[in-house]
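chain below, 305 aa
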Amino acid sequence: MRAQFVLSEIGVGLRRNLTMTFAVIVSVALSLALFGGALLMREQVSTMKDYWYDKVNVSIFLCNKNDASTDPACAKGAVTSEQRNQIKTDLNKMDVVDTVIQESSDQAYKHYREQYGDTPIAATITPDQMQESFRVKLKDPEKYQVVATAFAGRDGVQSVQDQRSILQNLFDLMNGMNVAALGVMALMLVIALMLIVNTVRVSAFSRRRETGIMRLVGASSFYIQMPFIMEAAFAGLIGGVVACVMLLSGRYFLIDSGLDLSSKMELVQFIGWDAVLTKLPLVLAIGLLMPAVAAFVALRKYLRV
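prediction:
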């Protein structure tokens, strides 16, 4: 009987405040969708870092004849055979180095023609203008500075470049988008909490006669508050379900269908469905508990009979 009464009171409260309940559902859904999206964005950045950092190399570019007259780092002239062999020997001795690939000027020119052969400037480039280099793959990409310190400024070395820096701007952009999403989520969360508190206050005021009678007949505070808390939790749960649908739809239409980024951006390692599915229970739990806690706190102030 008591459970039936609580459920009937929930239905009455939702019908009386239908517009505000709908606003709560929308605001909770948007805030939780942004929260889940921010979590997925962070995981996407982490996945891309793991994928690309495992593939990028440290490039040691050697001086050629053209650099000797134009680059201060090559003021002592083009790299000699002894210098080249010594660099390779020292690289192979380093514990942080996994593999070393030597690229000659002719090989560099061939790769350049394969990538930029259709551009006007490609016709003006000759093999002797291309730089020899060592492509070094590290066991730990974070140990770039060890290689840079050992070879930067050495005779015959024009520059040492970490290819991670090329990707860093992309990761910084994605992290910025993640922070922006978290900021918007926080704003939507505040709006949702304000709506929940206002909805509870209006509902409590509209039923103050019933709650007063319940108090007179000996009903406990928890029993009186339960319908209001359940109303907020129910609205929040619906908002959480809508947020989950939005996350699933976003993953499907952005990556698998619609924009189909997985086929258009084959070089990007996108997160899988498992990453999305593991976030859904957290979204639902927050959607259920957040409004319930907010309603409980609000009732301590507005439900005094």
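DSSP finds twelve helices and four strands in the chain. The mean pLDDT is 76.
thats it, cya
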